[in-house]
Amino acid sequence: MRVTIADEPAVKDCGLRKGSPEDAVGGLVPGHVARPSDTAALGRVLRAASEHGLTVVARGGGTAQDWGGPLRSLDLVLDLGDLVWIDHNADDLVVEVGAGTPLAELRASLAASGQRLAHDPVRLGGTVGGALATGVSGPRRLLSGTLRDLVIGMTVVRADGTVARSGGRVVKNVAGYDLAKLHTGGYGTLGVISSAAFRLHPVPHALRVLSARMTSTDRAERALAALRTAAVEPAAVELERPAEAPVRLHVVLEGTPDGLRPRVHATAEALGGEPTVGEELPDGWGLFPTEGTLALLTTPPAESVAAATLVGEHCKAWGISAHVRGSAPSGTLWVSFPPGTGAEQIAAVADSMRTGRRTFTLLRSEAHVRAAGIDPWGTIPGLALMRAVKDSFDPDHRLAPGRFAGGI
Q1: pLDDT band at residue 130 using 50, 70 and 90 as cut-offs
Q2: What is the pTM of this model?
Q3: What is the DSSP string of 327-358?
Q4: Is 262 helix (H, G, I), strand (E, B) or coil?
Q5: 388 contact partners, CB below 8 Å, separation of at least 6
Q6: DSSP-based three-state secondary structure for 56
Q7: Residue 381 has what pLDDT?
């Protein structure tokens, strides 16, 4: 009689059940789904999966299951929906959170103490673990850093079930700090994140959003240059270029009402004209479209406007449209293609943008784009090193196989 993971006594209390079509990832239906209640149970499930040679994918809110490259196989889905807890030390501006905790729940809990995780969510319904696994940061990253910069500690369960901890709950404790950063943005291919500790910031007393339409690429570049030299300390400088429309710049300032007045004036002068000024973030701030193909374009910061314009020109040449937005000072732009955009056209735009110091990565692809076999990543410097890290952390390549760069 063939022994399966369901026969293992160690996983009897881990919510193990048979997989269903609703659990499919990229069209692959897992044989089993487990819902561990804590880190110890998560370790037991992964240890059993290792002994049976099962390929594994972790799932939080399920909002990014279609991100990354296509999976080569899938035997077990780890549902982290029970790893939900918040341990907040308000005096030290630190919080430790279970990976399955919804980001919306964390924000509400911290706000009650006048604090926040300085991270703009990019997906509705996302969890802490999912945000870390994809490693994507929203617009307000200039003052506080990206999401990975806010991590001060992390608990990860390795492919063989070993529980590994790095960092801690003290902001100045940097032991193992780089290990936590390694898992942030790793798409769950190096280990399964169980919990993380973050440094926090106070909620600002006031906020202003200045938005201005740029009449030309040159005007937008001059405005960004003026913002760099102005003493305004923006929390975000978001570039937006809707399909076949002029570039718009959105600048977010945070502080006290009195302190914001001169900064608003200086920002308005840098932007030129008469920008609109709001006291709240726009609806849908930082959120990606839930449908269509989504790409990440990185470029030297000084070339952000030119890169956004170039994407639009290439799309127009291929008879398609795309919405471009992102953090201009960091050169991190997001390109959203409408649902149904042809795979051939997307591939052509990707190839044309992968030149010089730019990268163009397909983060989320529609089924027909995946089926076309388009390389999501392009040329990857350091791929050999990435493979060596994968071999060290997951020698049998069982964690989310194929999802990361180079098919890792």
Answers
A1: very high
A2: 0.93
A3: EGGGTEEEEEEPTT--HHHHHHHHHHH-STT-
A4: helix
A5: none
A6: strand
A7: 86
* Helix (DSSP H) and strand (DSSP E) numbers for the chain: 11, 19
Six-digit token string for 315: 């799309």
pLDDT, one tens digit per residue, over 318-334 is 999 999 999 999 999 99
Of 136, 119, 27, 17, whose CA–CA distance to 78 is shortest? 17
Where do we find the tokens 């089924």?
A: 367
**How is residue 108 written in tokens?**
């509400």
Name the more confident of 288 and 176: 288
Write the DSSP string, 87-123. Answer: EEEGGGTEEEEETT-BHHHHHHHHHTTTEE-----SS
Q: Which of 122, 86, 121, 91 is nearest to 106 (CA)?
A: 86
How far is the C-alpha of 358 from the C-alpha of 302, rounded, in Å?
A: 12
Instruction: Say if CB 249 and CB 237 are below 8 A apart.
Output: yes
Tokens 């388009």, residue located:
374
Helix (H, G, I), strand (E, B) or coil at 269: helix
Cα–Cα distance between 188 and 37 in angstroms, integer? 19
What's 142's DSSP letter?
T
Alpha carbon distance 319, 354 (integer Å): 19
Work out the widest C-alpha separation in the chain, in whole angstroms: 77
Distance CA 55, CA 49 (A): 8
- Between CA 278 and CA 251 the distance in angstroms is 10
- DSSP states of 275-331 as a string? -EEESSPPTTTTPPPSSSEEEEEE--GGGHHHHHHHHHHHHHHTT---EEEEEGGGT
